Amino acid sequence: MSTAAVLETDGATAPRRGRVLAVLGLAQLMVVLDTTIVNIALPSAQADLGFSDGSRQWVITAYALAFAALLLPGGRLADLFGRKPAFLIGGAGFAIASAIGGIAPSFGVLVTARALQGVFAALLAPAVLSLLNTTFTGTRERARAFGVFGAIGASGTVLGLLIGGALTQFLDWRWTMFINVVFAAAVVAGGTRLLVHTRDRAGSRLDLPGTAMISAGLFAVVHGFANAESHSWSSPLTWGFLAAGVVLIVAFTLWQRRSEDPLLPLSVLRDRDRAASFAALLVTGAGLFGVLLFLTYYLQADRGFTPVATGLAYLPMILAMMAVAQVSTTKLVPALGAGKVLPAGFVLSGSGLLWLTALDLTSGYWASVLPPLIVIGAGLGGIVPPAMSLATHGVPAQDAGIASATVNVMQQVGGSIGTALLNTLAASAALSYLTGRNTADPAVRSQAALHSYATAFTWAAGLFFAGALITALLYRRPDKGNTHD
């Protein structure tokens, strides 16, 4: 039973709700930044701590594994014990883990700190989205809030590259960890002052068998895809973990049907619009790496961009995304319906990705990179914010945390799938191109890299076009007068 409404919705509290949105947005930004902020810092960290090339992926993977595996129990804990306590504990724990990573004297300590960041992010992220969902309930204010929040979520990975590059280039790689202490201090201070304690499942218990099954299942799936990068798809370390993950997730689903206090009530997944939104976020997470990963390689390795210049190159995409996000959530979805807006966004982003396949070793940024980036950003602005809003719309208050956690699970698992799938396809394309050619010739190797990037962009575009089809089929046509309020 709910103990309180999060905040009043009358006009007098509007400035306070604006400050709440700022605090929640900063918390979301901190969590999303850390999926990529260490990427550009890895060479410096590797030189400082002396770990091998084969080990460096764990600095990134440790965060993703802990985050994805614990998101659903983290969301349920927010429902059981209160969203404000979950938010504050998650923020404070994230700061401590980041400080440990910043002073890490060895590779083992750094990876442990990254895993701890993932643990506390799994508590913080669902609380953030749940608080947003229960704070902004009116149609207009909800649309604006999710427009801002969705843009932050979608652009945070790019901003992570920019901030990580700037900190590494001008200060030290350790500041990619220490910066989170600054963010978290502001998040905890603002949350303590502005948020109201709410709890909607006070009489329920945590589903421990379900928690064990889904946490182990998600860990196995993400770990399996991560192994595909460093091993092969035929390796037992890849398909073995993937198979185990699928079995555990199926077992979890069956268990949820009989559990008295299910971790993830299946009613949350049965709504067609919600299922379409989850699918949209999964596909977007997978396809977006076609931009972030391979375009970053192209700009730095083939065009000589510095880390900071690479991050700045993505800013127009972020601005386009934020501009369209506001229009899509406040105007387009209420007027046209999600079944038209999101497929259009997928087609737009997919077209931008296909445009990138024309890049060559002499392509200029302004003529050949900027225009498709703007198109991709505009498409993302029509996908992510509306999908995040619709994925949590209409969920009973007692399940707000777990629905919010599912949103983050889709993005994390999608990103893991995209990284492994596109990396493997790109590597195969490069090897195929080099077969029968002079591999010692730098020009041949550069062309092989271009071929691999184009392959990744093409497959990422295919994912987005598949997303257009999925969302067009799944989203219900809106009833006249229904604006999802």
Brief account:
The protein has 485 residues and is an all-alpha fold. It has helices at residues 14-33, 42-49, 57-81, 83-102, 107-135, 139-170, 175-194, 208-230, 236-256, 267-270, 272-302, 307-313, 315-336, 338-356, 365-381, 384-392, 400-434, 442-474.
What does the model show?
By secondary structure, the protein is mainly α. Helices cover 77% and strands 0% of the residues. The chain is globular. Residues 1-12 and 481-485 have low confidence and may be disordered.
Task: Give the termini distance in whole angstroms.
Answer: 23 Å
Low-confidence spans: 1-12, 481-485
CATH superfamily of the largest domain: MFS general substrate transporter like domains
Largest sheet, strands/sense/barrel: none
Quaternary state of this entry equals single chain
What form results from the Cα inertia axes? Answer: globular
List SSEs in N-to-C order. HHHHHHHHHHHHHHHHHH
Query: What does the radius of gyration come to?
Result: 22 Å
- Proportion in helices: over 70%
- Report strand %: under 5%
